[in-house]
């Protein structure tokens, strides 16, 4: 989206009404843990949501992918390499440019049209997660543009966007070392909850002041499952180092479980394209 | 085709040894060959080796490389150089235009000092040129210092496509006015194509 | 970041040194360079600190102002980080050149201080829903000689440690409007509770091992680094990966363990250094920056 600084974004003094509901005030430790113990969608703690993947959805883009992770929906498109703007030196490695954006209506609170600090941060995380997977030496002096738009945010939006981007890159025939899988986990006390929903994410970052610190936080890990390499690791919250280490194992295991799903989706898209090619030849 | 071998990026294809060598669209890591693209695996058998290659479903985006013959449109002409946008490489149309620059010294092979840019090109001309090795990050250096390179399509002030009459002149078929150009000597079948267009 | 051209031979030399746990300047992999740290060196701000480590020079000023709290966290104050990569440091920071790096640093800092375990924002509240303190932490990078993240985080912690917030004598609601009176005595002030403030430890993966506090040359040899924010009690408040490379899960685990260990030690050292400076009293000589 073009950066239009003159655009009037409407009054910025509005707040979502939900902060005045009682739901927000129940912040005792026991209640939070109770809500996290039994997930609304009856999933187990180590179970990720059902995924829906469609590859090649945007006809104008070189490559694109649409990924649903439960209610979280992300669309991502990849365009042809272009010259790196505002750069004088010759760079031997091509660059990736990622733009991560929430649709204005995607989250509980309305988002503006311009990227805010969180979205800019996520764009950088996406870039770092994908860079190790792309053969950047094959397009020196050029950059590949990747645009991810979150249509609906029900948690784990960043990891879903990274997976969508990696599928879109593969669809665009950008040379890659491997497919990137990304998983989010939230931690509360001694619970590890894979693929959290929006509410579960919010609960784990809730500000409670207690005498004894409780482990809480979100970890996002992007991985090249085929080569067993972590391409990005992002943690916020507050926890013990042992928790971090055990969550690396859990996240890697889940990544390996998700990888066949992406593989199958890509396989189907290739078969479809071969079929189409054959029909055209006839 | 049911017999096609399908692969996705990062998929391990086979062991890399004296018999199996990595080809186009693959890479080698720790003794194995992996795929770079989502597409079809092809095995090319030579005398005693097999070249493993992977072909993507969409053509990989191509960018001009030194030595390529490109088709470009002239946008700006001044005394020292002209700027153009590169539209095609060989017979492949680019999805994105790239910027190119053609310096006075690179217009003709002989009589470099006598060359005048205004007598060689006008904005809007379609030219054939060769890409020179890159020196600047952003613009491709072009050269037309060959008989087969230079202006292919040019329009007169009337807006009518002109016909080449010599290697330095083109003539408007309507007004019969001659204009100066660095004309490309085009191989016959392409001339036929242009006439019918 | 400022790029230093290094030849392959130079890179190999650095790499072999790190493999042997003996770096070019004689340090081991987990050793920091000598640091110079000074607080309260500026008059116009409520807290300030200057840190020099190797050739990296960072100046931090904390200003305190009154603001209205966010509607979704009415009982909290506000804390914001601004990083300015001055063009003095390297010409590549000129114009918008340093913007990306500056954003990156301020984001990582904001993440590190986000958890209520690390920084309790309720201590900045004056009147819930109405008024709160807002801390502006402005970070100026004067010279850039590698390991910016760690340097900035230590300087920020020291500046916040020295920050004195004016004492509020009374804060009442007067017909729905906030009425605040500050103490008449300008020396009467409140200090922040800095017991759990984190610092950042960046570990650069060079070859098969990780190093802390790299010089600019060593930074050029690294494809990936992990920035961990460690609180004095050993807890982790954020982890971010930097650079274009990737790491193996077991390497990551090992790196994190090493980072935590280093982080706890460094935290202790810094706190004791700050206490020693405090003991010098108000009449100590101020060294100032860039000397």
TrEMBL record, chain A:
Organism classification: Eukaryota, Metazoa, Ecdysozoa, Arthropoda, Hexapoda
Residues covered by the Exoribonuclease phosphorolytic domain: 47-175, 178-205
Keyword terms, alphabetized: Cytoplasm, Exosome, Nucleus, RNA-binding, rRNA processing
Name listed for the protein in its UniProt record: Exosome complex component MTR3-like
GO term, biological process aspect, one: nuclear mRNA surveillance
Keyword RNA-binding attributed: yes
Keyword Cytoplasm carried by entry: yes
Alphabetized PANTHER family for the sequence: EXOSOME COMPLEX COMPONENT, EXOSOME COMPLEX COMPONENT MTR3
GO molecular function: RNA binding
Family listed: Belongs to the RNase PH family.
Subcellular location, record wording: Cytoplasm; Nucleus
Pfam families tied to this protein: RNase_PH (PF01138), RNase_PH_C (PF03725)
UniProt cross-references to Gene3D superfamilies, sorted A to Z: GHMP Kinase, N-terminal domain
Cited SUPFAM superfamilies: Ribonuclease PH domain 2-like, Ribosomal protein S5 domain 2-like
A cellular component annotation (GO) from this entry: cytoplasmic exosome (RNase complex)
UniProtKB/TrEMBL annotation, chain B:
Alphabetically ordered keywords of this record: Cytoplasm, Exosome
Exosome complex component CSL4 C-terminal domain span: 96-132
GO cellular-component term (any): nuclear exosome (RNase complex)
GO terms classed as biological process: RNA processing
Subcellular location: Nucleus, Nucleolus
A Pfam family the protein falls into: EXOSC1
Molecular-function GO term, any one: RNA binding
Residue ranges of every copy of the Exosome complex component N-terminal domain listed in the record: 6-43
PANTHER family: 3'-5' EXORIBONUCLEASE CSL4-RELATED (PTHR12686), EXOSOME COMPLEX COMPONENT CSL4 (PTHR12686:SF8)
Identification of the protein by name: Exosome complex component CSL4
Protein's gene: LOC105368806
Automatic annotation (TrEMBL), chain C:
Family statement drawn from the similarity comment of this UniProt entry: Belongs to the RNase PH family.
Cellular localisation: Cytoplasm; Nucleus, Nucleolus
Protein name, per record: Ribosomal RNA-processing protein 42
Transport in keyword set: no
Organism: Ceratosolen solmsi marchali
Record GO biological process: exonucleolytic trimming to generate mature 3'-end of 5.8S rRNA from tricistronic rRNA transcript (SSU-rRNA, 5.8S rRNA, LSU-rRNA); nuclear mRNA surveillance; nuclear polyadenylation-dependent rRNA catabolic process; rRNA catabolic process; TRAMP-dependent tRNA surveillance pathway; U1 snRNA 3'-end processing; U4 snRNA 3'-end processing; U5 snRNA 3'-end processing
Residues of the Exoribonuclease phosphorolytic domain: 32-166, 197-261
Main location: cytoplasm
């Amino acid at each position: 989206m073009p950066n239009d600084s003159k655009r009037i974004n409407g009054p910025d003094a509005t707040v979502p009404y939900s902060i005045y509901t009682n739901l927000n005030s129940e912040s005792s430790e026991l209640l939070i843990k109770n809500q996290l113990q039994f997930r609304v969608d009856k999933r187990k703690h180590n179970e990720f949501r059902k995924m829906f993947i469609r590859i090649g959805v945007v006809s104008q883009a070189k490559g694109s992918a649409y990924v649903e992770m439960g209610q979280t929906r992300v669309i991502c498109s990849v365009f042809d390499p272009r010259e790196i703007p505002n750069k004088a030196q010759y760079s031997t490695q091509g660059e990736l440019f990622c733009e991560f954006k929430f649709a204005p209506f995607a989250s509980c609170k309305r988002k503006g049209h311009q990227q805010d600090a969180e979205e800019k941060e996520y764009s950088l995380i996406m870039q770092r997660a994908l860079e190790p997977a792309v053969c950047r030496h094959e397009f020196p002096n050029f950059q590949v543009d990747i645009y991810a738009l979150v249509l609906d945010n029900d948690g784990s939006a960043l990891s879903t966007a990274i997976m969508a981007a990696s599928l879109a890159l593969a669809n665009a025939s950008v040379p890659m070392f491997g497919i990137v899988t990304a998983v989010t986990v939230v931690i509360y006390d001694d619970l590890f909850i894979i693929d959290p929903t929006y509410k579960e994410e919010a609960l784990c970052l809730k500000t409670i002041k207690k005498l004894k610190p409780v482990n809480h936080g979100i970890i996002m890990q992007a991985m090249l499952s085929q080569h067993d390499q972590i391409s990005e690791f992002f943690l916020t919250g507050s926890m013990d180092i042992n928790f971090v280490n055990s969550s690396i194992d859990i996240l890697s295991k889940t990544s390996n479980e998700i990888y066949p799903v992406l593989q199958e989706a890509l396989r189907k898209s290739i078969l479809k394209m071969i079929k189409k090619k054959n029909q055209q030849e006839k | 085709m049911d017999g096609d071998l399908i692969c996705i990026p990062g998929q391990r294809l086979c062991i890399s040894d004296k018999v199996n060598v990595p080809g186009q669209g693959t890479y080698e890591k720790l003794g194995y060959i992996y795929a770079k693209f989502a597409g079809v695996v092809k095995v090319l058998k030579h005398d005693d080796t097999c070249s493993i290659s992977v072909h993507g479903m969409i053509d990989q985006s191509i960018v001009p490389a030194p030595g390529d013959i490109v088709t470009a449109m002239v946008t700006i002409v001044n005394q020292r150089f002209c700027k153009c946008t590169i539209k095609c490489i060989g017979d492949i149309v680019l999805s994105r235009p790239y910027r190119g620059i053609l310096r006075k010294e690179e217009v003709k092979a002989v009589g470099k000092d006598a060359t005048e840019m205004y007598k060689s090109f006008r904005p809007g001309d379609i030219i054939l040129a060769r890409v020179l090795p890159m020196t600047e990050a952003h613009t491709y250096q072009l050269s037309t210092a060959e008989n087969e390179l230079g202006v292919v399509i040019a329009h007169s002030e009337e807006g009518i496509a002109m016909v080449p009459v010599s290697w330095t002149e083109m003539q408007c078929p309507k007004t019969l006015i001659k204009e100066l150009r660095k004309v490309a000597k085009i191989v016959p079948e392409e001339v036929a194509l242009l006439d019918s267009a | 970041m400022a790029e230093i051209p290094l030849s392959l031979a130079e890179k190999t030399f650095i790499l072999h040194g790190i493999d042997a746990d003996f770096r070019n300047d004689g340090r081991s992999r987990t050793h920091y360079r000598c640091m110079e740290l000074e607080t309260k060196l500026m008059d116009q701000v409520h807290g300030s600190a200057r840190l020099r480590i190797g050739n990296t020079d960072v100046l931090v000023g904390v200003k305190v102002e009154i603001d209205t709290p966010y509607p979704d966290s009415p009982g909290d104050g506000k804390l914001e980080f601004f990083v300015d990569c001055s063009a003095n440091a390297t010409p590549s920071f000129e114009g918008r050149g340093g913007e990306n790096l500056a954003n990156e640093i301020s984001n990582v800092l904001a993440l590190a201080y986000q958890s209520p375990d690390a920084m309790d924002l309720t201590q900045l509240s004056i009147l819930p829903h109405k008024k709160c303190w807002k801390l502006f932490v402005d970070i100026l990078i004067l010279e850039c000689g590698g390991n910016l993240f760690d340097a900035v985080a230590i300087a920020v912690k020291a500046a916040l440690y020295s920050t004195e917030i004016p004492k509020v004598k009374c804060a009442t609601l007067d017909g729905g409007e906030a009425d605040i009176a500050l103490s008449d005595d300008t020396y009467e002030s409140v200090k922040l509770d800095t017991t759990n403030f984190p610092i950042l430890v960046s570990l650069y993966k060079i070859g098969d091992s990780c190093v802390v506090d790299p010089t600019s040359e060593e930074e050029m040899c690294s494809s990936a680094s992990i920035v961990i924010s460690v609180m004095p009690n050993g807890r982790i408040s954020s982890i971010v990966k930097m650079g274009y490379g990737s790491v193996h899960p077991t390497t990551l685990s090992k790196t994190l363990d090493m980072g935590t260990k280093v982080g706890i030690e460094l935290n202790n050292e810094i706190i004791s250094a700050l206490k020693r400076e405090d003991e010098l009293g108000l009449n100590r000589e101020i060294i100032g920056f860039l000397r």
